[in-house]
Structures are given as C-alpha cells and as structure tokens.
Write a structure and sequence with these properties.
The chain is an alpha/beta fold and 822 residues long. Among the domains are: 244 residues, no CATH class; 257 residues, no CATH class. The protein is built from 35 helices and 20 strands. The strands form seven sheets. It has a five-stranded mixed sheet. Helix 34 runs antiparallel to helix 35. The chain is globular.
Length: 822
C-alpha cells in the first residue's frame, strides 16, 4: 500500500470533489485569485518615471524619495474584499510591477515574451503595453544600469557574460545578476518601525538637518540630501497608509453588511495610526509591518523580495500583551497570519529579463519568515508564537510565506517534533538553517555575539544581521561545468561553436597523468573566478550611480549614523557580506572523479574515446556512458569523490581569501542555484559523469540527480566531508533531500526525521530542505496538470506549484533520488 503525505491525501480529496474547507474568510480570499495568471500593473513604473523626468540633475537619493512620494500620492489604493490587512502595490488579483530603472532597455522585448514564457507567464492589458512602449521605456533607454555595465566591462570579461553581438543575451558562463535586481536579498529592522513609527523617524531626520553646518560642503552635498530623502520617504509611507484609511471609511459608508462595515472602520482606525506611530497591539503591529514591506517592494526590486525577519520575536510582546488582557485569541492570530500570507501570494516577483526569468521559475518567491533560533543573549528563542507559525503552515494549503526554521544544538524537542511534523505535510516547509554553522561564521567576519545570535534568514538560505549588514550588490553565478568543457576542448564550447572563450591550454590527449589534467582544469576554474571578480569590481563601482533606497536606509542604524544610502560601496561600521555562486558542483565533482578513475588510474578509457562519446551525446557509446555513470559519485559518503569536492571547494576559498580584499567585501563561496541550474545546463554539452547534453546541472550542494544511492545520511556525510571548515570564506550550501512519505510515516517516522535533523545540526551543515512526496504523484501531475493544480513542491529555497514549472524543471525534480530508507 502506497503511503501518501497529508498534502497528497488532500489533493486526492480535491480530485474526488471532497475538498475540505478552511477558515471562511481566508478560503474566500484564496478562491478569489487561486490559479489566475498574474497581470502586470504599470502604475508604479509610470509614476516613478514621471517623477524622474521632473528631477533630473538632483542627487539620486533625493530623486528616489521624491519618486516614492509621487507614487504614494497617485497610485491606486485597494482594499480587498474580506481582508483584514491592507496595502498592495498593484491591482486586484495576482499581479507584478515594473522597475524600468532596471528593465528599461529591454521592456518592449520582455513584454512581448512574457505571455508566452513557459516557467512564469504574465498577462498585460493592451493599453498598458502602449503606456510602457510610448511613455516609460523611451525615457529609460540609455540610462539603465545594464547598459552602463555592458559598456564598462572589459571585452575579455564581456564574452563570458553576454553574447558580444547581442548584449541582451546571456552566455550562462560567468553570469552577472546585478542588472535584473536592485539588491540581493534583504531584511529590514521591522522592530524599529513597530516601536518608533515613521513620524519619529522623520522627526529625528529633521533634527539632524537642523544641526547641519550650512558652510560645510559635505553637509550640503551629502548629508542634507540623505536626510531630506528620509523625511520624504517617511512622509510618503504615512500618506500611503492614510489613503487606505480614507478608502476604508468610504467603503464602510456604503457597506450593507454590518460585520464588514465594522471591520472596515477598524481598518481605517489602524491605518490612521500605523505605521506613522508605534504599534499598540498585535493587529497594529501586523499592519505596520505589512505596510513597510509592501512600500519597500515599490521602492526597489530586491532580489528574492524583502524578507520578513524574525516574526516570532518582534511580534511576541504584542501577542503576549493582547493574550494576557483577553483581546486576542490564537484563532484570531492564525486568521491574521493567513491574511498576510494571502496578501503575499498575490504579489508576484516579476522578472522582465529572460535571464532573470529563467533563474526564478514557478513565480519564485523568498519572503522568508524566520522562526526559532536563539535570542541576542544566546538563549533558546522558541515561544508560543513560534508554534503558531508552524501550525499555520500545516493547516493552510498555500506556498506563501517561505518559512525558515533556525535550529541549534539546544533546540527543544517539542520544537524539532513540530518542525518534523510540518515537513511531513509535504509542501516543503520549513527549510532549516543551522545556527551551529551560521553564528560562528558571522562572528569570524566581525559580528558581535548579540548580532550573530539575532540573524534572520533572508532570501533563499542566507543570513542577514539588520543594522550591521551593508552589502547589497548582486554577484556572479559561475558555470564550472563549462570550465570543464573548455578544459576538454581547448577553451571552446560546442554551444558557442569555434569561438575561443576560455584559456587555450592545448590538447588534453597529450596529458599523460591526472595531475596535469587537474592543473589544466584548475587554470580554467581560476580564470572563471577572475572574470567574476572583475565583474564584481565594476558592479560595485557603478551601482551607487543607479540605485538608491531611502526607506531602506532610514531603517538602518549605520546609514542614519553615516548619512549614507545603503547602496554606497562602503558604510563605516558595516559588514559587507557578499557571495559568488558555484553552479554544477556535483556535476564537476563526478566528472573529474570519472576522468581520474577511468582514464588515468584504471585506463579503461582514453581521452580521445571520452571526447568522442561526449561529442556524440553518447549515441553509439552506451557502454562508455555506463562506465561513467558507475564511477565514484559525490553524495554517497565516498571518500574518492568527496576528496575532489573538498579540493574544488578549497580552490574557490583560497582565491576569494586572497582577492576579495581588493573589493572590500567578504565575497564568499555559495552553492545556491535557485532554478538556474536548468538554463546553465542548457549551454553545457554532455559531461564525463554520464549526463546528457544540455540537461540540468546538479543543484546546490546536492548530489547529481539520481546519483545518491546510499541514503540521505550519506548525503549529509558527503556534504560534511567536502567542506573546508578552516576557511571562513564560505556561505550558504543549499541541500535538497527528497523522501518517500513512507520513510517518515507515523510516530516512528517523526522520531527518525528529528534524529536526522539533529545529525545535520551536529555536522554543522548550513541548510537543508525536504520534498516528502511520491514519484508517482509527480508523474501523474505532469501528465494531468489540471487535477494537480494545488500540488506544492520544494524547488531551490522556495516552494512552488508543480504545474507552474517548465517541463525541464519538472523532470529535474522527478529525477532526484527519492530515498525510501535511512
């Protein structure tokens, strides 16, 4: 008998027409937009552009703040039917908004492609297309960061990044990511808003303005524009909130249902008070946080969306107080949380760039809500609210928010049990982040204990310290399997014909031993890193000329102290934590292991025989492919493969230890692909691990698809064995584990999963996330998507509806090993 996860059971009930109903309010909101294709709303882009036309020549941060004030004054405000929390940056339903300061040079091309995009299509009204083409795009053409970056990159670096004949076309070799997002993932200090309110933030900026020296050049040219921008941004969000209050009163006057009329009046009272003033209760704290988050989304396109921080910590005092006086119940808390999740689910992070879209399939989102972990004083931080977040995730069938649970060695057994029960539900929540790895690394990079203990999960699997982190520049994704292909083909790739892209190191058939081959690969590898660091040097220099973030800077203590926008290249007292991406880690490891073993040690293949098999995509060479497939593989606690993985890891760490100082950044090694292992794989021909041409690369620090045959514990041990713990220049390693529901069934299954989590924590691995699903369910969903529209799967740091993914990514998920035992 096949054991189903709770999610699979629920879907079978839906197919049988017996779907269970949830809370009436949140069920009604969900039914109002579920399964609708997102629509592009152009208002934000239109008003942002209008303002920029009027402010040319002024300081950038001041222009940005004036643009946000202009948006706050004119953008349409909405109050959804049934909602208790209000504030959207686009129209009713699922929507995305445009950032022409990023996409202005290819908006017209992108809009033509979006409705046809396989992974995440969008619709747009014909009249809005005309507004974009005639009003918005013309202004930005020639002014965007992407255009400036293309002009500034050295020709040698450009050919790794873009097609030199068409710079809108990515090469997927050494890929910059800074041109389709204004910042990497980020977390605000929401507690500052809840405790101070924007009125106080504005008043503090005005006081600082009044103390400036009118004869000082720096005060006039740097400090004054910054402080004026804080004032304007504060005024803008307060105005935006009060417009919602006015709309709520207007709707209340015409509302016939007395219950809804009272709700609208309460909404009006809340919006008149927050975020201008400090929150007085749990409801106001939720609304104040939501206004801040949504206004930030309008202010700039942050990579992976603004994260929510440690919600079970900064909301707890409001929850506790309201529960004690009897004005709040757990049922009301869950309803408010679900109202926020549903509001999140309607904002779709839109990537106009074809490259950005291919990196973020399935309407990707990472608005991480962090729970658990430790207090700034180092004590366990789990509280009653923590468990309500987990309960909400188990009960409500939605892939928002992205829930992240911090784990440490003293995490309570009940907490781990409920985390495990939530994972068993089968929709991929929560992802786990390990304090025992993250905290020491943050300390090594200059954080205090209190700052390191208080980190929040941000984006896919990263850690942010509000008021201490200061680096926002997106960084390179590096396709190291492409470096291996260039090693085998003297600096060329089949995808790009006879073009000499990489280093010309000669014919590998002439190399007599493994060490010679290894050193040749390392030269290509290091050359890729060199090109990535050249990219980043240029990016760091250019970005402050193109992006500003007044509201985000107003919420950062160091920005306020130094009178600097958060996008400035250096802010005194900050810790600049960036990273570059190792794409196709296991693909490279397994390929090198096969070459070492079969060519140089066992001599069962020659280099010419290997290259012939690769060039024919193994057609007529199935025996050769089987030899390669059965060579040592990473992910099986195999010392042979894992030692190569560790050396590759070390090559990256040594390079960044030496050269990141020149950038003034902790530019650390990260293994987090999102869904980019699919498009990166589409430029790499067949590889010596037995992978067929142009298929997905391995993802994150996971084993190659289907290669991990020794169970999930062996996967953990390979991850542990391939780390270099004596280097601090490392960041997140994303690890996917796919389990059969039968493995975690019942009380014993929960206990084993808790033990597995404890083992992962003891090994000090950064991240792990789970899919608990039967392979047959995925195959049925691909075959009959309409029946499985509500099937949620874990992809790469986020969960998505399976039917929203491209066939390539669906197949990638299906091909991952489904572990049926421990």
């Amino acid at each position: 008998m096949v054991v189903l996860s709770p999610q699979e059971e629920r879907i079978q009930q839906e197919i049988a027409g017996k779907a269970a109903q949830h809370r009436p309010r949140t069920n009604a909101i969900l039914e109002g937009f579920k399964n609708l294709r997102p629509v592009i709303d152009v208002e934000r882009a239109r008003y942002f552009t209008e303002s920029f036309r009027q402010t040319e020549g002024e300081p950038l941060i001041l222009r940005w703040a004036k643009a946000m004030k202009h948006i706050a004054e004119h953008i349409t405000v909405y109050i959804d039917e049934h909602q208790l929390l209000v504030g959207r940056s686009g129209g009713i339903g699922r929507y995305g908004i445009l950032y022409p300061e990023l996409d202005g040079d290819f908006l017209d091309i992108g809009l033509a492609e979006l409705p046809k995009r396989v992974g995440a299509p969008f619709n747009i009204a014909p009249e809005d297309v005309q507004i974009v083409v005639n009003e918005i795009a013309p202004y930005w053409r020639g002014k965007t960061f992407h255009e400036h970056l293309v002009q500034a990159l050295p020709k040698e670096t450009l050919k790794y990044t873009y097609n030199p004949d068409n710079v809108l076309e990515s090469r997927f070799i050494v890929n910059e990511t800074a041109s389709f997002r204004s910042s990497i993932q980020w977390v605000h200090d929401y507690e500052k808003v809840l405790k101070k309110g924007f009125k106080k933030i504005k008043e503090e900026a005005e006081e600082e303005l009044s103390r400036l020296d009118p004869l000082s050049a720096r005060d006039s040219l740097e400090k004054a524009p910054f402080l004026q921008s804080v004032v304007l941004a504060s005024e803008a969000i307060i105005l935006w909130a009060k417009r919602h209050a006015a709309l709520a009163r207007q709707l209340a006057n015409s509302e016939q249902n007395p219950v809804r009329r009272q709700e609208l009046l309460e909404i009006a009272e809340v919006c008149e008070w927050v975020p201008e003033n400090p929150a007085r209760n749990f409801r106001e704290a939720m609304q104040s946080q939501w206004f801040t988050q949504m206004f930030s989304r309008m202010e700039q396109k942050t990579g992976t969306i603004i994260s929510n921080g440690r919600m079970d910590q900064y909301l707890y005092s409001y929850y506790q107080r309201d529960m004690e006086v009897g004005v709040l119940t757990e049922e009301k808390v869950l309803e408010l949380l679900e109202c926020m999740w549903l509001a999140m689910a309607q904002f779709i992070d839109l990537y106009i760039s074809p490259t950005g879209g291919s990196f973020n399939e399935g309407y990707a989102h990472w608005e991480a809500v962090t729970i658990g972990g430790q207090t700034p004083g180092g004590q366990d931080a789990t509280n009653t609210l923590t468990y309500l977040f987990l309960q909400s995730k188990r009960e409500f069938p939605l892939h928002y928010p992205d829930l992240a649970a911090r784990i440490h060695t003293r995490s309570p057994q009940r907490y781990l049990y409920e985390v495990a029960e939530t994972i068993k539900e089968g929709s991929g929540f929560p992802k786990l982040i390990n304090d025992e790895e993250v905290v020491p690394l943050l300390l090594s990079k200059g954080a205090t204990f209190a700052e390191a203990y208080d980190y929040a999960v941000s984006g896919c699997s990263e850690a942010r310290m509000p008021n201490r982190d200061t680096y926002t520049s997106p960084c390179a994704y590096i396709n190291f399997p492409a470096a291996l292909e260039m090693t085998l083909h003297n600096g060329k790739m089949r995808k790009y014909g006879n073009e000499q892209i990489g280093l010309a190191l000669g014919d590998p058939a002439a190399w007599q031993d493994w060490e010679t081959f290894w050193q040749a690969y390392v030269k290509q590898h290091i050359n890729f890193l060199k090109q990535a660091f050249i990219q980043q040097h240029v990016i760091i220099r250019l970005r402050p000329q193109h992006f500003a973030w007044p509201l985000g800077s107003a919420l950062h203590d160091l920005c306020m102290k130094e009178y600097k926008d958060i996008h400035e290249s250096r802010i005194e007292g900050g810790i600049d934590l960036g990273y570059f991406e190792f794409m196709g880690y296991a693909t490279v490891v397994d390929s090198l292991a096969a070459i070492k073993k079969l060519v140089y040690e066992e001599k069962r293949l020659s280099i010419p025989e290997l290259i012939t098999a690769l060039e024919t995509n193994f057609e007529g060479h199935e025996f050769t492919r089987q030899l390669l497939l059965h060579a040592p593989k990473y992910g099986n606690n195999n010392e042979y493969a894992d030692s190569i993985a560790k050396q590759l890891d070390k090559e990256c760490l040594e390079f960044t230890r030496k050269y990141s100082k020149e950038l003034g950044v902790h530019l650390d090694l990260r293994l987090v692909p999102f869904t980019s292992h699919v498009p990166f794989g589409k430029v790499v021909s067949a590889t010596p691990d037995g992978r067929k041409e142009y298929t997905p690369l391995s993802d994150g620090s996971s084993a190659s698809q289907g290669a991990d045959s020794k169970g999930p514990t062996a996967v953990l041990l390979s991850n542990y064995a391939s780390k270099n713990p004596d280097y601090r220049e490392r960041a997140s390693r994303l690890l996917n584990v796919k389990l059969s529901p039968s493995v975690v069934a019942g009380e014993k299954g929960t206990e084993k999963l808790v033990s597995f989590i404890r083992t992962w924590c003891d090994l000090r691995l950064w991240h792990v996330q789970f899919n608990v699903i039967n392979r047959q369910t995925l195959l049925e969903a691909k075959k009959d998507p309409e029946k499985y529209r509500s099937l949620i799967v874990r992809i790469a740091g986020y969960s998505a509806y399976f039917v929203d993914l491209s066939a390539d990514l669906q197949d990638d998920l299906i091909s991952r090993t489904e572990h049926t035992g421990w």
